[in-house]
Amino acid sequence: MRTLTRGTGATYWVVLAGTLVLFTAAFLLPLVWVLLGAFKPPAELAQQPPTILPRTWEPGAYVDAWNYMELGKFFVNTLVVAIGAWAVQMAVIVPAAYALSKLRPIFGNVIMGLMLATLMLPSTAVLVPVYLTLTDLDLLNNPAGIWLPAAANALNVYLLKRFFDQIPEELLEAARIDGANTWTTLVRIVLPISRPILAVVSIFAVVAAWKDFIWPLLVFPDPAKQTLSVALQRFAPDTPINLLLAGLVLASLPMVALFLAFQRHILAGLTAGGVKG
Amino acid sequence: MRRHVTAYGFLSLALVVFAIFSWWPIVRGVVLSFQQVNFVTSPDWVGWENFERLFADPLFGVAWRNTLYFTLLALVLGFGVPFLTAVVLNELRHAKGYFRLLVYLPVMLPPVVTALLWKWFYDPGPGLFNSVLRGLNLPTLQWLDSASTSMISLVLVITWANMGSATLIYLAALQTIPGELYEAADLDGAGIVKKVWHVTIPQTKFVILMLLLLQVVATMQIFTEPFIMTGGGPEESTVTVLLLLYRYAFYYNDFGTASALSLILFAVLGVFSFLYLKITRKADA
């Protein structure tokens, strides 16, 4: 397709090469730098000018970091928070979007409107009242303190509803004639058709929970219950730098792996599923 | 009738969750703004006292100035850079997957990881950036350690970490521009700059405006990066509104004043959020 330039000749190749170098330098090299940095002993990391490749390789830093910061425990905590946040959100928003889209109850539009209205509110504007509500309900140091507020995701209700709206009514009617009740129709007909949007919403729910910092910081005052992000910032000031770097690499790996595995879904979801990132 | 009952059955979980964790906190936030809260006795009504305390706090002005400065810097960088990147990427027919992968990779990193990494890069001694500057025989910078460069250093981090989403959204928008428009511009003898100005930007103005508003709303709530990288310093140069809010709530346990600050932030951001919703819903219809 025609674009801004014709994209032929020497200029094209110069721009392409320049962009390749720039992108690699800006986005890949810093990550490689950290990956390598974790292999260097602290003395080597403090030296100027820095060594490019580690002079002494200390792969033990990754193991030491894992043991020193007890990363295993925080990995499990983060996994519980992220998977739970996804499961609870699905249990809450899928039936709701289905009801609003296909069952069309009285005042359904009012409810959708009230949900969408919460989107106008910056998430941090309710920081204090939600925190106090969690305290009242005794949900501090409890992963449910993350799961439940995260489940009130109006944007995802809206995205699902919009997708369900496009499912032809005849399809549901046919299922009903075959004797399927409302619940079976949802599980057998609607959900399988909606796999693309469910994948997008699910991935973003897990990623958001894994990346979150401020809520786990507030919800888990107990160090043993904390997520990776909260634990890492707690350890950062007095952890040997090579161990901290190793810890940062380890904490990022699951998200990078998720990205590589679901790249197509994630990048497609970015544009299809609104822009809240 | 039965249909409504079934429907509300399906809606019930969502209604409970939204009521407790979304709708009620909004109301409660407004109420709290006019109350003095401690956990021993029931809250007292204090009228506008919380707001007066805020206005009397010299940090209140500092925090807003910092936040607006930050938002402005973030707009110049975080808004211009992804757009230009997308325009360039859209011209390239090779290594498409590689570019997309790279630009989005930082978006997947937890913000805490990014903040701690960049704090290490910014180290004025053996840090990556000063090492590169020294290698090139250029003067080094104090980055986060100086009040004059601390904010721009934070903006660089945020731009690096978040530009992937904006770039890819722009890229998708650019691909919907009909090729004939560029052909017509070619016939008129328009150069690249003219074509960007008269074809590319007008054709993507809806997406541009949407991301602009979204970005203002997001950057004004900046918290994680200053909290981890500077703690608001040096010389309070990176105290943002949200950092101040956090201090009021969780250092001084003054939830009333913190709520009053939320309310002010909400009023400011509400304008942008409202515009955003209006624009997106118009495009939806």
Automatic annotation (TrEMBL), chain A:
Bilayer topology annotation? Multi-pass membrane protein
Q: Where in the cell is it found?
A: Cell membrane
Which residues belong to any copy of the ABC transmembrane type-1 domain? 75-262
Task: Fetch the Pfam families from UniProt.
Answer: BPD_transp_1 (PF00528)
Q: Which positions, given as ranges, span the membrane?
A: 12-36, 74-98, 110-132, 144-160, 197-220, 240-262
What InterPro entries does the entry give? MetI-like, MetI-like_sf
The organism's place on the tree of life at top rank: Bacteria
Q: Which UniProt keywords apply?
A: Cell membrane, Membrane, Transmembrane, Transmembrane helix, Transport
| Similarity comment | Belongs to the binding-protein-dependent transport system permease family.
Which protein is depicted? Sugar ABC transporter permease
Provenance organism: Lentzea pudingi
UniProtKB/TrEMBL annotation, chain B:
Q: Where in the cell is it found?
A: Cell membrane
Organism whose genome encodes this protein: Lentzea pudingi
- Name the membrane topology term: Multi-pass membrane protein
InterPro entries the record matches: ABC_transporter_permease, MetI-like, MetI-like_sf
Q: Does the keyword Transmembrane helix apply?
A: yes
Q: Which residues form the ABC transmembrane type-1 domain?
A: 64-276
Q: What is this protein called?
A: Sugar ABC transporter permease
List the top taxonomic levels of the source: Bacteria, Bacillati, Actinomycetota, Actinomycetes, Pseudonocardiales
List the keywords (alphabetical): Cell membrane, Membrane, Transmembrane, Transmembrane helix, Transport
Give the family from UniProt. Answer: Belongs to the binding-protein-dependent transport system permease family.
Give the main location: membrane
Task: Report the domain of life of the source organism.
Answer: Bacteria
